[in-house]
Amino acid sequence: MKLITAIIKPFKLDDVRDALSDIGVRGMTVTEVKGFGRQKGHTELYRGAEYAVDFLPKIKMEIAVEESLLDRVLEAITNAARTDKIGDGKLFILDLEQVIRIRTGETNQDAL
User: What values do phi and psi take at 48, rounded to 5?
Assistant: First the structure.
């Protein structure tokens, strides 16, 4: 099993969620986060004063999948989140040792 953490632009969330649903992903956790990378923020104008916005709003998605689905999930996220502009995001893939569904006690593949 793998845990995929995807950092994407907020306006791409619905596209990514739809793409994942189309290939059979049944659940995910979504968090609103802030961060920066090469994009490094920008300046904005508020009531005539210019100020720096160092951290940009992003969406962090966490998706646990069976290894057999991994390549399809990565491709779906990449295609749905891509704008070909700086700041499109990143994917992190981690090994997932164990999953337990609290309500039923099911483990691993059954818990996904």
Answer: 85, -5
